[in-house]
Amino acid sequence: MTPTPVAVPADLIITGCTVLTHDDQERVGFQEDAAVVVRDGVVEAVTSAAAARDLPAAERLDARGQVAMPGLVNCHTHAPMVALRGLAEDLPIEEWFNDVVWPVESNLTEEDVELGARLACAEMVRAGVTCFADHYFAMDAVAAVVTECGMRAHLGEAFFSSQGPEGRDRSLEFALRHRGAADGRITTALAPHAPYTVSDTDLAATAELAREHGLPVHIHAAENRDQTDASLARHGCTPIEVLDRTGILGTDVLIAHGTGIIEHDLPVLERAGGSTAVATAPRGYLKFAWPTTTPLRALAGIGVPVGLATDGAASNNSLDVWESMALTSLIQKQTEGDPRWLTSRQALHHATLQSARAVGLGDSIGSIAPGRRADLVLVDLTGPHTQPVHDLAATLVHSARAADIRTTIVDGRILMRDRELLTLDVPAVVAELGERLPAFVDRSHGRRIQEYDT
Q: Is the Cα torsion angle 160, 162, 167, 168 positive or negative in sign?
């Protein structure tokens, strides 16, 4: 008689929750009284709570009253800049860069970057961010923090042409050395700063390196309308056209901000030979009083995915992608003059699958479905500010807050349980960072790492 096989326990079963799902047309929906089965860092099944009741598991989470949704992706940030939070306030962008940020960044040490990255990762995990795209300096330190704390990240070592060929070489060396690190949780990109700080020659060389090594590119471009106007006046072409003529648009490129993208740029982006995505960080645009925002509707019309972002906390003051989701929906309605545009379900799509696509991970994260990496968060909707629930999508986008996230999971590993961080020690980081801040923020030396002059 053949013995009955014993079921191998799942690593984790989350049960009793409502699961945010995507159908075959990528429309957002919800499965109630559901369970998520996780094995080897992957979602094995999304089933009913009743069907999962007797399944063996190493660990079970009772998530009644909570929504399980894909972890948020911060598609463009400078994580270590949390150390500059509130340092440069109420300034136009030229003064913000030239008088405060770039002088302070000339003081950067690897220890400063590591501490900033630790604090940033703690903030993001508590806000339900499971993956972030970072574009900064001394990125070995950021990669080490990501490896240790369990997050997922898309990392690039930023460079300016003023650094000479060494800057571009360091960006390439970093990208090749860390690609696939942290058990695959780290992906990498080449990271030229922007068309106004990186020459056409260096951009063309970067595009060639990207093609040669199969690397994407992460770059600021057409950040605001002034940059586009200045580029047209000086060079006779827009920043997007600069990316096109240098070959950057022929790579897999993530463009930060794009509020200066104009109608003239749309056919250029549409016919680009690579895969182009844009990251939008609306809170910073409001702070800088920029007159336009990322043109989501126009970009959607040509098939360019737009992911949600925060930029760095020096300009945004937080790394709260949940806030970016709500602001994106509201600002798009006002900009388009159409309350029907960017509905709550559309905003959730940008926050999940579109953001995953923007960082090149659209096939592995961004939805809770069999075969996807188990990057997900549990959102508690029992608070008075989220009740009653007439429209769950609207409740998530416009009523819930980042503080309602109870649990954050990456690759099946619980990084925060019931609001308690399990992989990062915030008090220790804050204490050490406080000791280093006087030297870090000193500007008496008169140096700056770059000049902002678009």
A: positive
What distance in Å separates the CA atoms of residue 237 and residue 234, rounded to the nearest whole number?
8
Per-residue pLDDT at 5 exceeds 60: no
Share of the chain above pLDDT 90, in %: 96
User: What's the pLDDT score for residue 274?
Assistant: 80
Alpha carbons 26 and 29: distance in angstroms, whole number? 9
Q: Write out the two tokens for 271.
A: 């016919």
DSSP 223: -
Nearest to 157 by CA among 247, 78, 245, 246: 78
Token reading at 95: 């003064």
Grade residue 454 by pLDDT with cuts at 50, 70 and 90: confident
Are 116 and 344 a contacting pair, CB within 8 Å? no
Rounded Cα–Cα distance for residues 392 and 66 (Å): 11
Structure tokens at 69: 């949704």
Please determine, for residue 4, whether its predicted confidence score (pLDDT) is greater than 50.
Answer: no
Q: Which region, left, alpha or beta, applies to residue 320 given φ > 0 means left and ψ of -120 to 50 means alpha?
A: beta
- On the question of pLDDT at 6 being above 70, the answer is no
What are the strands, taking DSSP E only, across 289-446? 306-308, 376-380, 405-410, 413-417, 420-421
Neighbouring C-alpha atoms within 13 Å toward the C-beta of 310: 30
Residues contacting residue 352 through CB under 8 Å, at least 6 positions apart: 20, 22, 28, 69, 70, 72, 366, 367
Average pLDDT over residues 391-410: 98
Widest distance between CA atoms in the chain: 84
Distance CA 32, CA 55 (A): 19
CB-CB contact of 353 with 366 (8 Å): yes
Q: What are 104-142's pLDDT values in tens digits?
A: 999 999 999 999 999 999 999 999 999 999 999 999 999
The tokens describing 215, both together, are 């690397």
Nearest to 190 by CA among 212, 165, 207: 207
CA dihedral 285, 289, 290, 295 (to 10 degrees): 50
- What is the pLDDT of the chain when averaged over all its residues? 96
